[in-house]
Amino acid sequence: MNVALGKAGLYRKSAVKKQRDLFLEMKRKENPDYDFITLQELRSAMNTLPKAKPPKPSRRAYNCATQRNETLDELYLGLLVGQIHLWENGSTINWIARSDGYPQDGQAIEAAARLCQAAEQWNEVMDGRVRFQYVTNFDDACFKLEYGGFKGPVLAEAFMPFQYGMVLNTVYVYELLFDPQYRVHMLGTMLHELGHVLGLRHEHAHHVVHGWGPEDIKDIFESILYGSNNSQSVMAYYMGQTIQDSDKEDIRNAYDDLMDGTTITGQGRFGLVQKTIERVPPNN
Ligand SMILES: [Zn+2]
Questions:
Q1: From CA 114, how far away is CA 236, in angstroms rounded?
Q2: 14, 77, 129, 186: which could join 114 in a potential S-S bond, CB 3.0 to 4.6 Å?
């Protein structure tokens, strides 16, 4: 893998600021009637959470069926048009959890407590590089946790750094996550989702077909492999994911080494891919 200094990051700073200003303006205009979980509720729920179940390999048949012949074993970075977005070092990502909108009592607080547990684990791993923090004021939140209803086989959905232009960032949990067989692995799901929020892509990012256009735009969706292989990565698809030592090492190295404007060339799905690192501020 080659890493070389590039200029691209310099002039994109203004675009980042403009986008952030737009977002803050929209958020100010939003006047939600949402109810949110208080810090006290969250703390007491954290104390009563049942222990997370140990991992269970490949129970998500909808994934296994489509990817059984592929290797699911690397840490990938980068989502869009020639760029890899990571948060600026030292960022605090504020989040808030809705207490309304769930079909059953107890689901909101359970999801929030699991996300909080996952956030604490990541905070330890990131050791100050990026920190998640629960807030109780909607205006201060970078993202909210919310129930997204029924979405077929999808358990949860997150966002990646910089996806904040026109909408408030949301981590969604869907109906299936509360099905007993997935519910016991909720912590793993939350760890995985927060991995996305930190900028990580799926292990099988190289294997997802997006309906390719011309060869010269291939890197729009191409990811770059960074670090070591581990089929048990928190970003792999299995139930009850845990953060692996290799995940810890790779993400710390990424946040320490991949500075704003750095160009990284790495192995993509169809060959070498080059992307530029952009370090972005959270929209708290
Ligand atoms: Zn995912």
A1: 19
A2: 186
pTM over 0.85: no
Ligand 1 centroid – CA 3 distance (Å): 27
DSSP class of residue 208 equals -
pLDDT by 10s per residue, the chain, length 284: 223 333 333 334 555 566 667 766 776 676 668 899 999 999 999 998 887 777 776 544 323 222 222 222 233 444 444 678 899 999 999 999 999 999 999 999 999 999 999 999 999 999 999 999 999 988 888 899 999 999 888 888 888 887 654 456 889 999 999 999 889 999 999 999 999 899 887 766 655 444 444 443 444 456 677 777 777 888 887 788 899 999 999 999 999 999 999 888 876 666 777 888 889 888 77
Residue 204 alpha carbon to ligand 1 centre in Å = 10
C-alpha 112 – ligand 1 centre gap (Å): 18
225 three-state secondary structure: strand
29 CA → ligand 1 middle, Å: 30
Which residue bears the tokens 């959270």? 282
Strands (E), 130-261: 130-134, 143-147, 156-157, 169-173, 200-201, 224-229
Distance 106 CA to ligand 1 centre (A): 24
Cα separation, 261 vs 96, in Å, equals 31
For 7-280, give the CATH class. alpha beta
